[in-house]
Amino acid sequence: MIRQIDTIACTNRMEDVSPLWKSGLAAALLLLAYAAHGPVQLLVILWMLRWTLRHAGVPPLFYLTLLGSACVFYAASLPALLIEFVPSATLPAASDAGAAAESRWTLLSLPSWTVYVTGNGLHTAATLFLRMLAGLCCMFFLMLTTPFPKLLLVLRTLRVPLLVIELMQITYRFLFLLTETAQQLYTAQRARGGQTGFRRRLQDTAALVFRLFGRTMERYKGLSQGLASRGYTGDILPASEIGRFVPPRFRREGWAGLLLLLTAEAGLRWGGGA
Question: Which of 139, 142, 7, 175 is nearest to 67 (CA)?
């Protein structure tokens, strides 16, 4: 998937648009999505989908797959948000709390414990889901429309320390080395009849991880020698030019959209809609 992300980031229709402008738009919407009310967050999601799918031309199926993969982590946290356990003896007292009483749906009732879901828990889960989705859409817009080297240029423009940029660059490079080496080892195991059956699969996976470390270190030494042969002195300097071109229609739509979203949020916050 990381290769697909890199390929889309380098070939989409917004690749030539200023990375600084796209980063500013994504950051502004991310902050708005974090602080705004639900309806505004929903508008942020729809607007980011328009930028990513329509303007940049990212394949919808791949985008949905990426979004669904990220939502798996949210789904894993749902039990902690929704399900509550209380001793059965204290349950009637909680229901007699008058004003504190809330909607409650019992999932499992045991002699000593009761498992249930509350209305407040559902509301919290829905609020978090909307906020998470809006934030993901902002990040995916930047990630899928801007090649990683241009993001490093943005960080350099923002005066991020050079050491941090170099570490990010080396880590980015090693992600590809790691996935390529893992794929080669997996293919070799499959060719020898491995990765079949549960027990054999566990053994082969453990062997793959062990060999992966050795192979990666070999590739690391090769990369270090390659850098040294090209005159590496401890500093990896990115390109100094950062594109600042923004099509006028994108600039107009960006400012108009931000103004509308801020107006809607102000209306909800101070107009009695909250």
Answer: 139
For the chain, give every domain's residue range: 1-85+102-160+246-269, 171-238
Up-side HSE of residue 245: CA atoms within 13 Å toward CB? 7
User: For tokens 């509550």, what's the residue?
Assistant: 84
Evaluate the CA torsion angle 225, 228, 234, 238 in order and state its sign.
negative
Q: Which distant-in-sequence residues (6+ apart) come within 8 Å of 8 by Cβ? A: 58, 59, 62, 144
Distance CA 127, CA 130 (A): 5
Q: Are 132 and 33 in contact (CB under 8 A)?
A: no
Please tell me what DSSP assigns to residue 27.
H
**HSE value, Cβ hemisphere, 13 Å, CA-based, for 154:** 20
Confidence of residue 235 (pLDDT cuts 50, 70, 90): low
Q: Measure the CA–CA gap between 58 and 40, rounded to whole angstroms.
A: 24
Q: Could you tell me the pLDDT band of residue 273, with boundaries at 50, 70 and 90?
A: low
Does residue 129 contact residue 74 with C-beta atoms inside 8 Å?
A: yes
Give the bridge partners for 84, in sequence order: 116
SS3 state at 70: helix
Mean of pLDDT values over 43-55: 91
Provide the token pair at 1: 């998937």
**How would residue 46 be classed by pLDDT, with cut points 50, 70 and 90?**
very high
Instruction: Measure Cα distances from 237 to 24, 143, 152, 163, 173 in Å.
Output: 23, 22, 10, 10, 15
Tokens standing for residue 164 = 């941090």
CA 52 and chain centroid, separation: 14
Listed in sequence order, the residues at least 6 apart from 51 whose beta carbon sits closer than 8 Å to its beta carbon are: 14, 141, 145
